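This part of the workshop introduces the protein records we will be handling. To make this concrete, we reproduce a full record directly below.
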Amino acid sequence: KATFSEVIWWPIRLWLLFLSLNLAIIIAVGVALTNLQMLIFSALLLLGTLLLAYKTRLVITCQDNLLRVGKAKLEKEFMGKIRVLSESELKIARNTRNNFLAIRFWIKTGLNIEINDKRDPNSNWVISTRRGSELKEKLSS
């Protein structure tokens, strides 16, 4: 069982943006299609948008001695100092070189984890999370 789990999905404004873009494409292309073709095309566009939203969600889990962020994994033994980041600190961290970034622009807070592994080219992990204090507590225990 995961001791911590968070899934970050698209916010409503991003859904509205993609659905508006889909509608613009349907209007532009739909004039050349029959009703059935337009219906199929619209369904495929919607399916593509749903698939994109599913593939770009950020899944964060902490289980035993392992942190998973998307497909990336980090064991506790390689974690150094862990800090909860405010909005301004997150902006600075995402513009710093040699950081592994798992961020979503609509999340204003995050977590910075220093890496204590000479083989890793990244010096820090910067993660977007709404529950930074809780995740820090789970990783520190």
